[in-house]
Each structure stands twice: as C-alpha cells, then as structure tokens.
C-alpha cells in the first residue's frame, strides 16, 4: 500500500468499515478484527507520515523565511549605511598637531598643575612651608616661571593642595627652571621637609585653550572650582570647537579664570578653572547659563565626549596670586 497516496488510504479505511458493519458469524468477526487491526496500523502510519511531512514543511518554511529575512536585513543595512553616509561628518587628515590648533601659538605658555595629598595632621605646617618658599621663586626673575595659584581643596579630595605654575617660553623654560632649582639649597631643603608631610603627589603639564582668558591675579575673597574632564581619545578638537562658543555664555560675572588641556600625564584631560564669591553665587551663575540661548546645545553635544568628570571647590592660600 502506498501511504503517500490519499486514495489508497481512504480505500483501506472504507473497506475496514464496510467489513465491520456487514460481517456475519465468527469467521466474519475474526476477519473483521484482523481488518480493524490493519486499519489501525494504517492510521498510525499515516499519522506518523503526516507529522514528518508537516515537520519538513515547517523547516522548509523557516528556511525560506530566514533567507528572505537575511536578504531583507542585508538590503536594509546597505540602505542604512548609504543613508547615514550622507550625514556623518567626515574627518579630513590633519597635518598639524591638536595642540597647535587649540593653543595661543604666539605666547607658547606651558603650565604645570600639582596635586599634593597631605597627611591630615600636617596640612597647616605644609601651608606655612609653601608660604615661606613658593612666593620667593615666583618673584625672582632668575626663574622664568610664575605661580598662578595655590589652593587647599575644600570640597572634593580632602587634605589636598593644588598648585598651578606658568612657564613663559614653553618646555625650554621648564627645563631651565628645573636645572636652576637643583642648585637652590633653600628649595632642596623645602622639598625634603615637604616629603615628610605628603601621602602622595602627581602632576600634569598643560597647554591653555586659545579661547580662554589667561589667568591673571585677582583680589578676593573668592572660592575656586576646578572642573576636570577625562575625554574620549580623539575628541579634543570637537570639545574645543564647542567650548569656543560656550565660553561666551560664561563671562558675565568674570567667573572664567582659565582653560587647559593635558600634554603629559593623564592624556585627553581638560581642566576648567572658575571663580565665584561663594557657593550660592556659583549656583546662581550656573543656573543663569541655562537661560542663555545656545548653552543647552553645547551641554548636549559635549556630554557624550566625556568619560569621567570631577569637581573640586578650592580655597586659595595666603601665597596665592589668585585670591
């Protein structure tokens, strides 16, 4: 019997049914039972065959759907890629370093920022030691460097001192100062005594953004905020382009002191230095920036460039030119 032929299956079932109803006598009954068994077997085999056929059809259907989906997806991806290519900003190969594009080339100032974590019980003595030594180096024309500011962190890392130096003349000036200070016995004694008071220290060499004001001495009292941003590698130019516009929104209260980016140390690090009369003035000034047309766009487009950010509120020490 050909189970794949529906006509033969129906014929077998009809034969079994007719025999059951028309059978007479024991012999006919036995014949009918045998035929019923045969019909039952036929039904079981037919059911199994239909199930397998259904499974093969389902698999074939899935394969067709998958193939169609893959083709559609590939086509859609090609279309999306082509469409996006119309709007994605293309980066032209540059023949100049980022630092030359962002800085005030005619001045060539180099900055050094120092972070000293002081033993809590030594902070007062540390400040006194710095007040006795650092201003003398700042005032001595023999050293081509200037102390821009020196602070203690108020909110942020506790028991921390921050010093910002400027070297007019760039790396040659830095090298000259380092060589001369090695011969300065007072400075050598200062470093030795300072080392007993510190838990750790680190520094960075910085350049200043061309669109920021150069830090100049100012009268107090003020508090200072150092906002530090770790940018994603490759985004410094984009950051500079946005902040060249943004700085115009933050000049009304003379709060913008200086803007720098790292050259040696943690790379792709940006520091913004701000001055406020107090914490309430800081809050009012920052809230006021959101009323400026265009400020929210700068924030919206620069936030994705940041990997990490940090804020320190700092109090100037007596030796600081920025008060």
TrEMBL record:
A Pfam family reported for this protein in Swiss-Prot or TrEMBL: NIPSNAP
Biological processes annotated in GO: mitophagy
Residue ranges of every copy of the NIPSNAP domain listed in the record: 224-321
Keyword line: Autophagy, Mitochondrion, Transit peptide
Keyword Mitochondrion found: yes
GO cellular component assignments: mitochondrial matrix
Protein role: Protein involved in mitophagy. Accumulates on the mitochondria surface in response to mitochondrial depolarization and acts as a 'eat me' signal by recruiting proteins involved in selective autophagy.
Similarity remark: Belongs to the NipSnap family.
Protein's UniProt name: Nipsnap homolog 2
